[in-house]
TrEMBL record:
Record CDD domains: DPBB_RlpA-like (cd22268)
Family membership: Belongs to the RlpA family.
Domain RlpA-like protein double-psi beta-barrel: 20-103
Membrane-spanning residues: none
Top enzyme class: lyase
The protein, known as: Endolytic peptidoglycan transglycosylase RlpA
Protein purpose: Lytic transglycosylase with a strong preference for naked glycan strands that lack stem peptides.
EC number: 4.2.2.-
Organism: Candidatus Rhodoblastus alkanivorans
Pfam family, one: DPBB_1
Keywords carried by this UniProt record: Cell wall biogenesis/degradation, Lyase, Signal
Length: 106
């Protein structure tokens, strides 16, 4: 006799979210919290799941970039996301180092 258990999970779409705050950027090599590496278009966020895609929009110039969350942070009060050096270039914030942004889940 087979005591088989069948479990199925319904995949529900994540509700799109958007919030504003300060972003900074980081560079370097080495492993991220997800076990990957800092990439051209990656970012660190405190609680979004690894692999999440978000659109980051620089509110001062309107430039935006889609990044993949693969690290944890930022660990500086008042900042909501750390983007990679490549993403910072696309956003036009490398010179300033910090920018006011809107982050939207995709």
């Amino acid at each position: 006799m087979c005591a088989c258990l069948s479990v199925s999970f319904l995949s529900l779409p994540v509700q799109a979210q958007s919030w504003s705050g300060k972003a900074s950027y980081y560079s370097g090599s080495g492993r991220t919290a997800s076990g990957g590496h800092v990439g051209a278009m990656t970012a660190a966020h405190k609680w979004l799941p690894f692999g999440s895609k978000v659109r980051v929009t620089n509110l001062s110039n309107g430039r935006s970039a889609v990044v993949t969350i693969n690290d944890r942070g930022p660990f500086v009060r008042g900042r909501i996301i750390d983007v990679s050096k490549g993403a910072a270039g696309v956003l036009g914030m490398r010179h300033a180092g910090v920018a006011r942004v809107r982050v939207s889940t995709l």
